[in-house]
Amino acid sequence: MHNSENNIKTLFPKQAFIITGLSGAGKTVFIRSLEDFGFYCVDNLPLPLLSKFLNLAYQGQDNLSKVALSVDVRGKKFLPHFIDQLDNIKKEEKERWQLKVVFLNASKQTLTRRFQETRRNHPLSQGNLSLISAIEKEIKILDPIKCMADIVLDTDIFTVHDLRKWVKNSLSKNVQQDILVNLISFGFKFGVPVESNLVCDLRFLPNPFFEEHLKKLDGRNPLIRDFLFKKDSVIEYWDKLRNFLNYSIQKFYQEGRFFVNVSVGCTGGKHRSVAFVEKIASEVWDNTSFLVQHRDLGKE
Predict the structure, then answer these.
(1) Would you state the CATH architecture of domain 2-176?
(2) Whether the model pTM is above 0.90
(3) Which of these, 89, 99, 87, lies nearest to 15 by C-alpha position?
């Protein structure tokens, strides 16, 4: 019976993540979260040891079925070796390891704010190189890794707790990741969110703003939802929008995208967009998790 169980185990690849990305994007929180959820983690593993580690982890007696390796590939001499070695490892280890590269990404604005808040020096800040120049330099250096990553996770809207939650829900249970959909309600008069992947314009729908008893409420209120979703024009649009978003998100997922920003806008970002974002977030779709951000509530 014992031998039979061992034979069964060899039929299924073990799970390995290689974690890399921009400084300040959350690599430390990410790998520590994986460690908390049962992964054997190694931080800043030297590149030449990557293949040797996976071989030892597979052959060893410790039953390491889930490992996560943080690799620093900023150095110019490491970058081509990393790409070549990763291609070789994926070919050689595909029967033993289900290997995925996770690239943690963030905007220049977010990275600048994080470094300023923590008062840390950027790893590439040397000599007279400013913080923003160091960030731009690293983005350029790591772009080839970002392009080849299996998962690119934008952490701009994540708190530390949000990132831990994403790791727990998407990576710690099995190798099947959810796509995380960040739903943003906004007002067009305040500008379209620059991070948007999809933008939905609701300004042609009936506006609760012009109803005196609804004007001061926002889209989270049941009275606003009733006003909107009992109208034939709104119901018709909702049905089409829901089908379009579900279809589009599943296409993103099939292409290996695991994070997408969907922005839903009305005039002021208080009534229609908020109500629609709340309704979308209540949907249950395959392989999909939602975050909600009401960007412009209160700005009026």
Answers:
(1) 3-Layer(aba) Sandwich (3.40)
(2) no
(3) 99
